[in-house]
Write a structure and sequence with these properties.
Layout: H1 9-19, E1 41-44, E2 47-49, H2 52-62, E3 69-73, H3 79-88, E4 93-98, H4 101-111, E5 119-123, E6 137-142, H5 151-154, E7 157-167, E8 170-176, E9 182-187
Parallel strand pairs: 3-4, 3-6, 4-5, 6-7
Antiparallel strand pairs: 1-2, 7-8, 8-9
């Protein structure tokens, strides 16, 4: 994503978040020894803990500043929620949403291993995307694929904010311009479970 990673402050911040948030702590016992593999790993309910290089790319594109208010859609094991909390710091807030009740509990238990009380994971409401009542958000991360960018999530983004999600097989970085319209950049090819 960057020509000189050793000098890129965003990469340095994301790397530090990864170091402070070991993936193994967010995996089921039976796949924990595979935490170092750069591939998605199953966490139950036909869901996965995403490939680390993909998560790194997404967090790089999201460029989360300290103190940001962040929505994490598809929190799964809680790993991305915890990583985002490391990036926002205690001045920020992170709300992770997950549709599968078993994974909500799994993610909450994993997140509780880390002292990041400004982050939480809640049950997503079926048929509703995001959490309009808690918005607008500075950053929105979506770890599930859609055929098009959901307008209801974009509506929850603050002006100047950034949304990162896989759309139609590519990673989209969407900024909300001063005019309230989306400014879209597309990167690479990525495979994710469908957004629902």
């Amino acid at each position: 994503m960057s020509d000189s990673p050793e000098l890129d402050p965003i990469i340095q911040r994301v790397d530090a978040a990864f170091d402070a948030t070991p993936r193994a702590e967010f995996l089921p016992e039976k796949v924990r020894e595979r935490a170092a593999e750069d591939r998605p790993l199953p966490i139950g309910r036909n869901q996965t803990n995403s490939q680390p290089s993909t998560v790194h790319d997404m967090l790089y594109l999201l460029d989360v500043p300290e103190g940001a208010s962040v929505l994490d859609v598809g929190a799964g094991s809680g790993w991305t929620t915890a990583l985002l909390a490391a990036l926002t710091g205690p001045e920020g807030s992170v709300l992770g949403l997950e549709i599968e009740p078993e994974l909500v509990q799994f993610g909450q238990a994993n997140l509780a291993k880390f002292d990041r009380p400004w982050a939480s994971i809640a049950q997503a409401v079926k048929g509703k995307l995001g959490h309009a009542g808690k918005g607008p958000f500075d950053r929105i991360l979506v770890s599930a694929a859609a055929r098009r960018m959901p307008p209801e999530l974009f509506a929850q983004l603050r002006v100047g904010g950034v949304l990162v999600m896989p759309v139609a097989g590519q990673m989209w970085q969407v900024r909300k311009g001063d005019d309230g319209k989306p400014q879209i950049q597309r990167y690479g090819e990525y495979l994710f479970v469908p957004l629902r």
